[in-house]
Amino acid sequence: MKIAFLGSGKMGRAIAGRLLASGHSLTVWNRSPGAADELTALGATRCTSPAEAVREADVLMTMLFDDPAHEEVLLGGGEVLSAMRPGALHISLATISVALSERLTAEHTRRGQAFVAAPVFGRPNVAAEGRLWIVAAGEAAALAKAQPLLETLSRGITVVGAEPRQAHAMKLGGNFLISAMIQALCDGSVYAASQGIDPATFLETANNALFQSPFYAAYSKVMLHPPPTPGATVALGAKDLRLLRESAAAQHKRLRLADVLAEVFDEALASGIAEQDWAAGMLRMAEGYAGG
């Protein structure tokens, strides 16, 4: 299959690199041309426009940052959907709004193209190792075509339904739980320190006694020992929580904890830590809040 890959940020580079290492050939495009250098060095073919990248592709895979980026590239000036041939498959790997997922489904249907939502759980290092967890949704034939590619990237795939919007909703729900976990770990760490308990000891003991979760262990480590390069930023967490609340509101649902977390994220963004690591940055803010 001829594969086009749009979006060469940290996660996009890791996923595309995994595909290249598995023997797939890719045409690539990114808004910032330099971001694709790593992929061209691995054998990808760089294109000067997203339309050029997808014109002959059997499969388009996207890992663009947010809704505006998707709208501009796929539906706006990028003219990607118009350039895709009928019968081609679009696999959306990014975290986008439920509303945009619904719009993309309608646009692909109108053009006779297939669409699978397959947002991923995991940081870039996990993607590079092919150990993402993927939630997927779409029509059966489209899912069957996408599955071999998704298996290359993942340690597991959960099919959540026949409507692509369901996978994007699932990803937002999962990221909401990550937000709640990070805030609980931050507050627990601050509480432990206030009682003269080493936060690392507190978090390790609580996980061993209560959760036995590799996620709790991994995020605790990131919080206490921030990586040189953020795997996910505070701004990314804030964006995903906003999309969750919007999709819930569209169904006339209010999520009380999400409302509280939205206030925390607003404070974090206002404090200037938007580009810091999500877990580590939120801990620093919690420590500052606790200090009065």
Account of the 3D structure:
The protein has 292 residues and is α/β, with parallel strands linked by helices. The chain folds into two domains: 3-162, Rossmann fold (3-Layer(aba) Sandwich), CATH 3.40.50; 169-290, N-(1-d-carboxylethyl)-l-norvaline Dehydrogenase, domain 2 (Orthogonal Bundle). It contains 14 helices and nine strands. The strands form two sheets. Strands 3-2-1-4-5-6 form a six-stranded parallel β-sheet, with helices on both faces. A three-stranded mixed β-sheet has the order 7-8-9. Helix 2 links the parallel strand 2 (26-29) and strand 3. Helix 9 (164-194) packs across helix 10. The mean pLDDT is 95.
Summarize the helices and strands and which ones pair or pack.
Blueprint (H helix, E strand, L loop, with lengths): L2 E4 L3 H12 L4 E4 L7 H5 L3 E2 L3 H5 L4 E4 L4 H9 L4 H4 L5 E4 L5 H14 L2 E4 L2 E2 L2 H5 L3 E6 L2 H14 E8 L2 H31 L4 H13 L2 H11 L9 H17 L5 H15 L7 H13 L2
Parallel strand pairs: 1-2, 1-4, 2-3, 4-5, 5-6, 8-9
Antiparallel strand pairs: 7-8
Helix pairs in contact: 6-9, 9-10, 9-11, 9-12, 9-14, 10-11, 11-14, 12-13, 12-14
Quick recap:
By secondary structure, this protein is an alpha/beta fold. The protein has 14 helices and 9 strands. The chain has a 6-stranded parallel β-sheet with strand order 3-2-1-4-5-6, with helices on both faces. It has a 3-stranded mixed β-sheet with strand order 7-8-9.
**How many helices does DSSP assign?**
14
Mean pLDDT: 95
Q: What is the helical fraction, as a range of percent?
A: 55-70%
Can you tell me the residue ranges where pLDDT is under 50 for at least 5 consecutive residues? none
Tell me the β content. 5-15%
Overall 3D geometry? globular
Q: How many structural domains does the protein architecture include? A: 2
Q: What would you say the CATH architecture of the largest domain is?
A: 3-Layer(aba) Sandwich
* The top level CATH class name of the largest domain: Alpha Beta
Calculate the terminal CA-CA distance, rounded to whole Å: 58 Å
CA radius of gyration is: 20 Å
SSE series: EHEHEHEHHEHEEHEHEHHHHHH
CATH topology of the largest domain: Rossmann fold
**What is the tally of beta strands?**
9
Main sheet: strands, sense, barrel:
6 strands, parallel
Strand neighbour order, sheet with most strands = 3-2-1-4-5-6
Structural class: alpha/beta
